[in-house]
Amino acid sequence: MKRIVILGSTGSIGTNTLDIVRRFPDQFQVVGLAANENRALFEKQIKEFRPTVAALFNKKSAHLLTDKKRYPRTEILSGPDGVMQVAACPNSDLVISAIVGAAGLLPTLSAIFAKKTVALANKETMVMAGSIVQREARLHQVQILPIDSEHSALFQLMLKGKQEEINRVILTASGGPLLRYTPAMMKQVTCKAALSHPTWKMGPKISIDSATLVNKGFEMIEARWLFDLPPEKIDVIIHPQSIVHSMVELNDLSVMAQMGLPDMRIPIAYALFYPNREPLPFQQLDLTKLSGLTFEMPNKKQFPLLATAIDTMTEGKTYPAVLNAANEEAVHAFLQEKIGFLDIYKLVRKVLDAHVPTSSDSIESVLMADRWARWEMTKLVQKGKK
Fold this sequence. Notes:
15% strand, 16 helices, alpha/beta, 46% helix, 7-stranded parallel sheet, globular, 4-stranded mixed sheet
């Protein structure tokens, strides 16, 4: 019986993880849950899985869950400190880190400090502080298992060869809902259009990141730290069908690919059962029913945030943390219809251009850069509204 904690239990990764737990009740026990503020769903999860401890990031929502009679077996915590306590739950074996955005960094580090195996779905953690996370993981002898379909694919493929044999890794991107948009159409993108991802079901923030393709840039940065690869060995290619999740090119120019239907439960299950595999009761990939698999280079002029993310990966220091924070605030403003779709890139670029980078070797410098970028983006959004 593997005892698990789920950070971000009400999100897409969290609910898919709980679906697997339901299907394998003899193999998993949920001992900790944490989420942002979806109290209605969170209450249902507590009642069903009866964790030892649970926390809502939103203190006001958490306050409404403190009735001991309703949840006699569960300690209810709140706020960032409460979420970090859940991450470090002493009776857990595996922590699923699936909180969206920068909010997932400190809880992930808390799990590492508590020497818990981490199944990582929060790419922002690696974007902001990849060197710190890997340093602490080595120091505390913690294994990090990737959950993102692309990184899970790379993890599985790279088990087949030696690090020195790898020529490059190739992450695939569906291209998102705006892949075939003309420049004129890009000027008129609505929230509804940007949220309508063609192959994956995701939360709003990640859906917008997929529409701008910055999500793929973040995944390249994540791969750089997860697999200790130099930036020049990490590529991205557009693959609209989302069947090939990633590829590894070896030094003899042979290419290994990992394939599967676009179902996040498959890479989640791989991390949950690792180092074993279990038969899964999901739909099987039938190659004979595929009309074809296509690949193309990303248009970085159409999706300049992808090129920007690649640049920050090369530049390093606190640039990736600033990119992540500025992008989060810009996406939030777009979802609230305070700015247009193309303004996301324009404003993020302004924040990056104004940034004076510092070393990212300490968590304090990373968090300081994060706060600065959010403040700068807030000022730009407010200025644009006047």
